[in-house]
Amino acid sequence: MKIKNLILVIVLGTGIFLNVSCASKSSQKESDSDDIYNVQVAKLEKQILDNTLEFTANIEAWEKVNLAPASPGRIIKIYAEVGNHIKKGQLLVNMDPTQYNQARLQLTQLQIDYNRMDSLVKVGAISRQQYDQIKTQYDIARNNTEFLEQNVNLKAPFSGVITGKYFENGELFSGAPNTKEGKAAILTLEKMNVLKAYVDIPESYYNNIKLNLPVEIKVDALGDQKFNGKVSQIYPTVDPSSRTFRVEIKIDNPREIIKPGMFARLSINMGRIEALAAPSIAVLKLQGTNKYYIYKVENNIAKQVFIERGRILENYTEIANGNIKEGDYIVVVGQDKLFDGAKLNIINNK
């Protein structure tokens, strides 16, 4: 009997506890829904904004060449060191001239034979076929000699700065790759008074980007200094995976302050535009997704509205699409604590 009474007490106690707990939760829920949140709102309007495209890029030399002969050989003398400023046409390397000297001797003999044959063919002493054969041999020998001369005396193809030296006098150049780019070189020459950078721009701007469009450049390593550049080339295709097209930026660097490899920030001013835009602080991202939303005010109730985010211009975010229109009021302060359907107390109403 005592056991039955004990069970009855436990059951009754559990029921009372559950009823109290449920009532407490229900009361708490009703209390939450009755909470009123203080917020500040703003009227969604079209804004006149600076349409500036911003990119980051690594600076590159305008021209760069890894100087090397066409075939392996011994290096007789190198006339430049890293950091030297070089003029176009300046002699930089002398290679072993043995093959070149042999080719010159052969060319000299063939030139004598060619001149003699030229005289004989004019008087009909030899056939045209014989003359054509010696002329072909002479032309081949002349081209071969010129080629060998270029590969014995390596000259600068443009004015620039020596940025790499990989051999010393007397060493054998094998032709094996020895640079960061995986190419073979004795010296590396780079043009540094003019530089370039590449940026990938969204395809929606393709018709707006023009040659010689001004570009402002800032280099992190050089503080707040600003440098001028311009669009020098627009690639004629769009990458289907990224929906961007490539643009080359030419950067004037007369004092050679900027160095190839430096990290830069580039700004292209596309002029001023009118766009339906909300303060960027009002645009929230749904956690764990790529979806964005804002809170629209309807009868002092917060309504969560998902939007398609456009460009970020100054401190505003363009509203490209969404169930919202010009003239609607949106929450700009206090939105981080809201939920769909929250009751609002509007502190100000712009």
The shape, in one word, is elongated
Low-confidence stretches: 1-31
The total strand number stands at: 20
Tell me roughly what share of residues is in helical segments: 10-25%
What's the CATH C level of the domain at 54-61 and 191-273? Mainly Beta
Strand content: 35-45%
Note the main sheet. Answer: 13 strands, antiparallel
Alpha-carbon distance between the two ends: 75 Å
Q: By CATH's scheme, which homologous superfamily of the domain at 54-61 and 191-273 applies?
A: Efflux pump adaptor protein, beta barrel domain
pLDDT averaged over residues: 87
Total DSSP helices: 3
Structural class computed from helices and strand pairing:
alpha+beta
Explain this structure.
Helix content is 23%, strand content 43%. The chain is built from 3 helices and 20 strands. Strand 17 (301-313) and strand 18 (316-322) form a beta hairpin. Mean pLDDT is 87; it is low at 1-31.
Provide a quick synopsis of the model:
The chain has 350 residues and is α+β, with helices and mostly antiparallel strands. It has helices at residues 2-33, 98-122, 128-152; strands at residues 36-43, 45-58, 60-67, 73-78, 85-86, 91-95, 153-155, 160-165, 172-173, 187-202, 214-219, 226-234, 244-252, 263-279, 284-285, 292-298, 301-313, 316-322, 329-333, 343-349.
Could you give the topology of this structure?
Blueprint: H1 2-33, E1 36-43, E2 45-58, E3 60-67, E4 73-78, E5 85-86, E6 91-95, H2 98-122, H3 128-152, E7 153-155, E8 160-165, E9 172-173, E10 187-202, E11 214-219, E12 226-234, E13 244-252, E14 263-279, E15 284-285, E16 292-298, E17 301-313, E18 316-322, E19 329-333, E20 343-349
